[in-house]
Amino acid sequence: IMDSSTVCMEYLKDTNMLFIGGLLVAIAVEHWNLHRRIALQVLLIIGVRPALLLMGFMGVTAFLSMWISNTATTAMMVPIAQAVLQQLQKSELEQSAVEQGTAQNGTINRAFEMLEAPPQQAQVQVVVKEKLPEEAEQKWDEERQQLQEKHQTLCKGMSLAVCYAASIGGIATLTGTTPNLVMKGQMDELFCRNDNVVNFASWFTFAFPAMLVLLVLSWLWLLVMFLGLDFKKNFGCGISEAEKRKSERAYSIIKSETLAC
């Protein structure tokens, strides 16, 4: 039977205590909503375009995953991403409904203005008045379905982006993920005279550039897979006035959420 000092050496290694410290940092970040503040501040800076939104969440997730565990980072960032996407969808639906209602009112008003026309033309105008609302309603249903499909595709891409970024960001530091700490502990145990060649600084110098390259490549891959090759639309170049109003409304929602934190 081993004495207590020998047993404690096996359970209270530097690697284990460092892992516990990472969990405590994750609890502190979640308690004070630091992850939410960072995410919303980044979105206020880069904007709410689909490509930039994807890049912003991936950057924030990778940064947080450098200091806390991948699982904790993913659990904290996925609800924020889903909430932001739901607010964006709600904003788009409301804006589309307002525009559709304006178009329908304009159609009906034109019919009422022409009621004083001769009898033959009046009959024709009545037929047009009855058909246009149905066509407008059908157009609104199609547009709403397109927005729903777009939202679902963006949600899939965002969920995968957060998970990918958490895994990629964890390789940048020793504390980023558990396998890094396990490797460090095994190396110190098997090669006792390694002169501490693997430490936080040396690991960061070696792994951080690789993490950046992998993060950019994964962002481009998800961008092509879920948002398509229309980079002009994804980055918001040359968009219409309606799209600008939607973006401004979404930006104001994110700004109000940031002030509420």
Automatic annotation (TrEMBL):
Topological category with respect to the lipid bilayer: Multi-pass membrane protein
Family: Belongs to the SLC13A/DASS transporter (TC 2.A.47) family. NADC subfamily.
Keywords of the record: Ion transport, Membrane, Sodium, Sodium transport, Transmembrane, Transmembrane helix, Transport
Transmembrane segment boundaries: 17-34, 46-68, 200-224
Transferase found in the keyword field: no
GO molecular function: alpha-ketoglutarate transmembrane transporter activity; fumarate transmembrane transporter activity; sodium:dicarboxylate symporter activity; succinate transmembrane transporter activity
The protein's name: Solute carrier family 13 member 2
InterPro entries found in the cross-reference section: SLC13A/DASS
UniProt organism field: Micrurus spixii
Subcellular location, record wording: Membrane
GO cellular component, one term: plasma membrane
Domain of life from the UniProt record: Eukaryota
